[in-house]
Amino acid sequence: MQKPLQIHFHEIEPSPAIEARIREQCQELEEFCDQIIGCTVTVDAPHRSQHQGRLYQVKVHLTLPGEDIHSTHAHHDEHAHEDLYVAIRDSFRAVRRQLEDYARRRRLDVKSHEPAQRQGTVTELHGDRDYGMLETEDGRQVYFHRHSVLNAAFDRLHVGDSVRFAEEAGEQGPQASTVHPEGKPHAQG
């Protein structure tokens, strides 16, 4: 996170154990999505029922590029939220679901703004390990997996074949999300 985690307590005494649990939950969100700019958590115990104890409410607010995410579900009538740890868990689960939706939307946005398809040449094939490498027109190496090759044509590819491909950022560098074989390069004469 670019900004430090903020934890606020209302109508409840601050607790190092509760703070530690919140920090742990935030760390898990950060491990899932490294684009979180900031996180603010408010712990509140405003509701005292005649038939039960306090019902804790935990609000989580995440700041992300272009969007904010909030845990919005109020748990006023859930007996389980008499346990503060359960209230924390449920609020972070709600935020995690929204964060997963955010990550999916971002991936689609990135893919939809990619240039059409690029030209490349197959430079390596490793059929025993289900991957190959392409060289782009500007000399870069791009990884592709067997499942990225359209029409199950991986086994029909040869080093030197021309392909069209769509590129995306992979975990270890550029990778082709789709590879469309075009055949052997034409000899120039």
UniProtKB/TrEMBL annotation:
A Pfam short name: CSD
Domain CSD: 119-180
Span list, region Disordered: 167-189
SUPFAM superfamilies cross-referenced by the UniProt entry: Nucleic acid-binding proteins, Ribosome binding protein Y (YfiA homologue)
Gene3D superfamilies: Nucleic acid-binding proteins (2.40.50.140), Ribosome hibernation promotion factor-like (3.30.160.100)
Protein name: HPF/RaiA family ribosome-associated protein
